[in-house]
Amino acid sequence: MLLGIERAVVEDVRVELETIVVSVRPKAREKHRCGVCGRRCPREDSGQGRRRWRALDLGTTLAYLEADAPRVYCKAHRVVVAAVPWARHDSRFTVSFEDQCCWLAVNTSKKAVAELMRVTWRTVGSICERVASEAIAQRDLFADLKRIGIDDFSHRKGHRYLTVVVDHDTGRLVWAAPGRDRKTVEKFLELLGKERCAQLELVSCDMAESIAVAVGDRCPNAIRCVDPFHVIQLATDALDEIRREVWNEARRAGHKRVAKELKGARFVLWKNAHRLTERQQHKLAQIQQTNKPLYRAYLISQQLREIYRVTYEEAVELLDAWLAWARRCQLAPFVKLAKTITKQRPGIEAAIEHGLSNARIEQVNTQLRLITRRAYGFRTPEALIALAMLTLGGLCPALPA
Ligand SMILES: [Zn+2]
């Protein structure tokens, strides 16, 4: 009970150096089961003899379980180490130890987990992988998917990407994998299956042609939407391009003070106009005074955000007006953006018509970025995916007992 183990018989408890070692064996009916599928199998040999598993500490003392680790012969999995009721297959930790590690990884700081559990952060990563893959196998995460978002984001420098799938109705992460091409998206649609693909009512994604084609091919009933998030991102990028241009100009012309001002203005320009502090508003007023093109670019990009704040009918009108404005604004990045938006207009309008909440998409995106930063130090992208699924996929185990 103290160690949080069940279906096992305790044979002996002893103190060894500064640790407690508990000898156990599985109860008779738990013996000789395949470590992978759990089926009862004939015993093969005694494997590598006695093994130890790290258990939850007993008070302040490290504790280990010790037991035989025989191998069995499974028809499906051949010769494998037999399952034990207290640990997951291939793990050096008990189930309750791993569950607690995951719970902490989701709910506390990196440093807290590693120090409290006395394991490395890298080990926490492999534990997350094991726990998440078990949870995914036991649950049907794809049940009742109707409105989903497919997105990608960079998880590492050097163009390493993940593709993620989010359920728009629950805000949950339902799938993630390394890569961001058509093949990755097709892998997901393959897993989802033909019938469930046909049940999808709405699929949102960025403006990439490849994803749109894959979705169009396999999801005959889905309306394709462009995520508002990406539209706003493009406007922000265009604005930043202009900011950099005028900054470079000012620097070249030797206007040090202006250059400095512009450099610090980045955040003010990016931010939602409704959320500016008094000081930031002052900064904006300065830009309006000293830099007409940049202020114009700012207004155009803010105006584009408005289409997501009004009714569908108003948004269509607003978009017409916005496109007309952007086309003749004489700011090259926005003229280009107007072209892109004209091309993507059906998808952009569909997102507004079907009430796709940008707040939620942005929230998931922000959380994914935070998790990515936390996952720094993990060995594989799979460990990052596991932590994301535990955190945003609702797969985090409860604390033991
Ligand atoms: Zn098996």
Any descriptors?
12 strands, 5-stranded mixed β-sheet, 15 helices, 401 residues, binds zinc ion, elongated, 4-stranded mixed β-sheet, alpha/beta
**Helix content, binned percent:** 40-55%
Low-confidence stretches: none
Order of helices and strands: EEEEEEEHHHEEEHHEHEHHHHHHHHH
Numbering strands along the chain, what is their spatial order in the largest sheet? 10-9-8-11-12
Give the C-alpha Rg. 27 Å
Q: How is this structure best described in words?
A:
The protein contains 15 helices and twelve strands. The longest helix has 25 residues, at 228-252. Helix 7 (228-252) packs antiparallel against helix 11 and helix 7 packs antiparallel against helix 13 (332-353). The protein has helices at 95-107, 110-117, 121-138, 182-192, 194-199, 209-218, 228-252, 256-264, 266-270, 278-290, 292-306, 312-327, 332-353, 358-374, 381-392, and strands at 8-16, 19-26, 43-45, 50-58, 61-68, 71-74, 78-81, 147-156, 160-167, 173-178, 202-205, 223-226. Strands 10-9-8-11-12 form a five-stranded mixed β-sheet, with helices on both faces. The protein is α/β, with parallel strands linked by helices. A hairpin with a 5-residue loop joins strand 9 and strand 10 (173-178). Bound molecules: zinc ion. Zinc ion binds at residues 34, 36-37, 39, 74, 76-77. Residues 34, 36-37, 39, 74, 76-77 line the site of zinc ion.
Please outline the helices and strands.
Blueprint: E1 8-16, E2 19-26, E3 43-45, E4 50-58, E5 61-68, E6 71-74, E7 78-81, H1 95-107, H2 110-117, H3 121-138, E8 147-156, E9 160-167, E10 173-178, H4 182-192, H5 194-199, E11 202-205, H6 209-218, E12 223-226, H7 228-252, H8 256-264, H9 266-270, H10 278-290, H11 292-306, H12 312-327, H13 332-353, H14 358-374, H15 381-392
Parallel strand pairs: 2-5, 8-11, 11-12
Antiparallel strand pairs: 1-2, 3-6, 4-5, 6-7, 8-9, 9-10
Zinc ion (ZN) binds next to loops.
